[in-house]
Inverse folding.
């Protein structure tokens, strides 16, 4: 591939056609928006066409594209059919995202178009992950990531720049600097307004490009892409441009003068390029007329296609939340030979087993490598599998979690370790807005077979910021699966099953279990991850719990025998999905239920379980559903207060006796 554009007649007509096509499509979308045929937010690309037209045709078919919420132009130039884009704008099932994404979330697997992203900067870590997968798989692809200058204020921008340079990721970063983000001029929001210098500060090769000059953009893109293919390292282009329309169709544009917009329109990319071509005799007015006539016909066809398209039936509402569910693993045949092991070692052996079984599996997170993990779970694994597969990350939870999501979407099987559950909140945007939604928003085209592990719970005197039990929060989010292994068998067996799942799986490991020792069969293997387990049979009351509270509850059940109470103990194991069948069968038998949850009572998973029991087993109950939860306080540091703040065995016993009238 030559570094310089070849400005023959065919090529300049192609460039002009791409820009006019995007402009006329956007103008039609604005018209359709006023007719209320397109709804939601509508962000138009009017004025920025030279960037998509200059960059995207230089990419190869196997290269990937990550765009922003202003991505109609990118999708059109990439080759996504206009008919399907327009149908998506209408929300029709015939759209490129099956009507699930709308204007801001155009996806197309056939062209490796990984979608627009409504979260400012949210696509940056995803692009890093796609490129990381290419690194692992030895593919000579480039991932092109488009974003606006507003994104450079986000932490995800800086986290991704650091990862891209640190790990030599083949990403072409294209900042479409239109000067205003949403409504604030760059000088009002950034101390450093030369965006490319931010990338250069991380050691990334960076260039400034006139984003209103399609030839300059193409020349820069050709050089950058050739450079990435040669070095397998990132390149950054700051394309300085201007949007002629509002941020979105809701925007009254009170933050800039009309005269400023009109001045920029005079030097717009189409006016500029078309005028130069005509002036130099490279094209004729008839050529422009033919392009416009052809595009008008294409737009008319696209609108007719969208208007005639079908709405998804209501019965399809829950489609594309989760992928096709694999069959549960066959239970391993017990060998009868038992070995003593800690919970920590069981998790480690699960990771090791997965790494041996599947070359696509890798572990990444803070201090998982040379340090051996905050809780020593991965100690020694870097020596065995190397620094690529046991990958230490910077302290950038959103960045490396997003990179894990991207790598999973590209076919890898990452295990992302977030050191503690409170740190996961820094990655919540990526977990909730990308991992949990990309399958739905893409109409089932892209999945994220990702596992995220994290330590959870109180008991180590780590005070209020390191003692959370937030797994119930994540169980609130459709598109995720949430596991809480309590036994060695589950700690050892859940991970491999989770890695076979087509969807993101979060595994919460209670900190008080790591040192717990028990016997486990040497042939212990994968276990089912969607069913609760009855850990103790009983007839008088169902004690429902999970994770670190299981053994406190089992001890309480034993203590209750002295009072003549025979308690059944249910280990939820999975918080999403909840195994209603096992829960209701137990409650229908015992006619009483007490839920023990280390999360705070208000808005907790225990409240959800209680509601489900009331909905499904109310007429079986002989007493109201009870709950023993964490006290409504930040977890204290002193040991006696910490113990008082979370459920303990005596409190469970007392609650049961009260319910039983003893």
């Amino acid at each position: 591939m030559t570094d310089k554009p070849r400005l023959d007649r065919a090529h300049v007509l192609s460039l002009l056609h791409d820009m006019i096509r995007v402009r006329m499509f956007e103008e039609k979308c604005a018209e359709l928006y006023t007719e209320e045929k397109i709804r939601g937010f509508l962000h138009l690309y009017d004025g920025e066409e030279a960037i998509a037209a200059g960059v995207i045709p230089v990419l190869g078919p196997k290269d990937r594209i990550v765009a922003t919420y202003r991505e109609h132009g990118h999708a059109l130039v990439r080759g996504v059919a206009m008919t399907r884009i327009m149908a998506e704008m209408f929300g029709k099932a015939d759209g490129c995202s099956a009507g699930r994404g709308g204007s801001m979330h155009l996806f197309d697997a056939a062209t490796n178009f990984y979608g627009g992203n409504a979260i400012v900067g949210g696509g940056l870590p995803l692009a890093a992950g796609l490129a990381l997968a290419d690194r692992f798989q030895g593919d000579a692809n480039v991932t092109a990531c488009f974003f606006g200058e507003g994104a450079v204020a986000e932490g995800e921008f800086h986290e991704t720049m650091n990862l891209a340079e640190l790990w030599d990721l083949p990403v072409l970063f294209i900042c479409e600097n239109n000067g205003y983000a949403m409504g604030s001029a760059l000088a009002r929001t950034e101390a450093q307004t030369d965006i490319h210098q931010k990338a250069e500060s991380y050691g990334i090769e960076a260039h400034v490009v006139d984003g209103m000059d399609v030839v300059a953009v193409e020349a820069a893109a050709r050089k950058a892409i050739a450079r990435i293919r040669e070095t397998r390292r990132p390149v950054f282009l700051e394309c300085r441009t201007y949007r002629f329309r509002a941020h979105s169709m809701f925007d009254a544009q009170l933050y800039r003068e009309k005269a400023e917009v009109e001045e920029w329109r005079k030097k717009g990319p189409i006016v500029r390029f078309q005028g130069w071509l005509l002036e130099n005799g490279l094209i004729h007015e008839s050529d422009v007329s033919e392009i416009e006539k052809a595009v008008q016909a294409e737009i008319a066809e696209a609108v007719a296609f969208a208007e005639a398209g079908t709405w998804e039936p209501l019965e399809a509402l829950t489609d594309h939340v989760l992928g096709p569910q694999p069959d549960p693993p066959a239970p391993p045949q017990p060998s009868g030979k038992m070995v003593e092991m800690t919970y920590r070692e069981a998790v480690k052996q699960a990771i090791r087993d997965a790494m041996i079984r599947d070359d696509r599996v890798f572990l990444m997170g803070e201090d998982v490598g040379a340090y051996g993990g905050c809780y020593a779970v991965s100690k020694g694994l870097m020596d065995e599998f190397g620094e690529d597969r046991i990958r230490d990350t910077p302290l950038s939870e959103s960045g490396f979690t997003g990179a894990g999501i991207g790598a999973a979407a590209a076919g890898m099987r990452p295990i992302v370790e977030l050191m503690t559950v409170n740190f996961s909140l820094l990655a919540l945007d990526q977990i909730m807005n990308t991992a949990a939604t990309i399958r739905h928003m893409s109409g089932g085209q892209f999945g994220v077979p990702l596992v995220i592990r994290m330590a959870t719970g109180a008991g180590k005197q780590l005070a209020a910021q390191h003692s959370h039990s937030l797994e119930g929060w994540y169980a609130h989010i459709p598109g995720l699966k949430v596991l809480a292994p309590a036994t060695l068998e589950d700690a050892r067996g859940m991970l491999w099953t989770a890695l076979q799942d087509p969807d993101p799986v979060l595994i919460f490991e209670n900190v008080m279990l790591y040192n717990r020792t028990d016997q486990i069969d040497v042939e212990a293997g994968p276990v089912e991850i969607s069913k609760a387990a009855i850990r103790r049979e009983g007839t008088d009351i169902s004690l429902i719990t999970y994770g670190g509270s299981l053994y406190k509850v089992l001890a309480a059940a034993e203590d209750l025998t002295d009072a003549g109470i025979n308690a059944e103990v249910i280990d939820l194991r999975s918080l999403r999905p909840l195994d209603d069948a096992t829960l209701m069968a137990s409650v229908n038998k015992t006619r009483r239920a007490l839920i023990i949850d280390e999360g705070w009572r208000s808005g907790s998973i225990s409240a959800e379980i209680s509601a489900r029991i009331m909905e499904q087993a109310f007429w079986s109950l002989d007493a109201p559903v009870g709950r023993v939860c964490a006290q409504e306080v930040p977890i204290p540091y002193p040991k006696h207060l910490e113990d008082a703040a979370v459920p303990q065995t005596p409190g469970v016993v007392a609650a049961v006796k009260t319910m039983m009238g003893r």
